[in-house]
Amino acid sequence: MALLEVKNLNLGFQSENLFFQALYDISFSIEKGEMLALVGESGCGKTMSATSILQLIPKTARITSGEILFNGENLLNKTQKEMQSIRGAKIALIPQDPMTSLNPLYTVGNQLLEIIKIHQNLQGKEAEKKAIEALEMVQIPNAKSRLKNYPHEFSGGMKQRAIIAMALACNAELLIADEPTTALDVTIQAQIMNLLNDIKTQQNTSILLITHDLALVKENADIISVMYAGRIVEQAPAEDFFANPIHPYSKALLNSLPSNKGTKLATIKGQPPAITQKLDGCKFHPRCEYCMKVCLKNIPPLIYVNEKHKVACHLLDV
To answer: What's the average model confidence in pLDDT over 312-318?
Structure first.
């Protein structure tokens, strides 16, 4: 049984008398000790898919159908009180911006200890020991003295490590990392990704990685799910995906990566449609160089091209 299984998740936003659908039949699963990368441009629905798992969606958003199974239990049937005991303790969120995710008025130790006291029911020396262990786990040197530091005394990379430590302090089974390397330089990005990969391997922790950066996940992710305009358009094991991308959007994303050959950087014309924009057929068709008549009218189903590789594209019928 998968640790997390999202099944046919549909979500939209209510605006006065209008309802705009944002997610369409999102389905994916994550095994224990596995990293799944949800990739795509900004506005494709990656973060909304992740926040739905924790029931942290905006008040105007509404899940209309689907299931989110965690250890076999449907999280959509949980009360907010029940979800509070799951958030942080079993499923931890590593938020997008390390610069603003820590409270500047409290020491890093105070913020870490608060989480440990709430979710681990530890006090005093036991709680402090757990906090030090968490900081050491994310390779922060002089962990005991660092507990007394305020966030402004940490670099950007150190802040992100502290946030990851908060997620690990309660032995969460699933980490949701939403653009965890945003605003960090390339060297620190690599260090954070290596850290997440070590956690996955050593702690058997599952990770849902939200990112638009395919280069970042190539060496770390086990599964790639490509999202476009609220739909998953391709899903495959990472090795298979990078060796044989099939959907035109996946190919375009990979072609836009910098190469060592000195060739001109490829771009994808246009931009993803807004959820308020009515667009028939495949929503990628205005930007697709392979667009056919059928693409203008019919939404392609997500089908298997082999045992583990799924694609939603009418080119498969040609």
So the answer is: 90
Of 190, 201, 230, 315, nearest to 38 by C-alpha is 230
Q: Is the dihedral of CA 217, 219, 222, 225 positive or negative?
A: positive
C-alpha 194/C-alpha 191 separation (Å) is 5
Task: Catalogue the E-assigned strands of 158-317.
Answer: 174-178, 206-211, 223-228, 231-237, 303-304, 310-311
pTM (2 d.p.)? 0.91
CA distance 177 to 91: 11
Mean pLDDT score across all residues of the chain: 91
Q: What is the dihedral of CA 36, 41, 45, 51, to 10 degrees?
A: 60
Q: Which of 231, 317, 230, 192 is nearest to 13 (CA)?
A: 230
Strands (DSSP E) found in the chain: 4-15, 18-30, 35-39, 61-70, 73-74, 91-94, 174-178, 206-211, 223-228, 231-237, 303-304, 310-311
Question: What tokens were used for 289?
Answer: 């160089």
What distance in Å separates the CA atoms of residue 158 and residue 80, rounded to the nearest whole number? 32
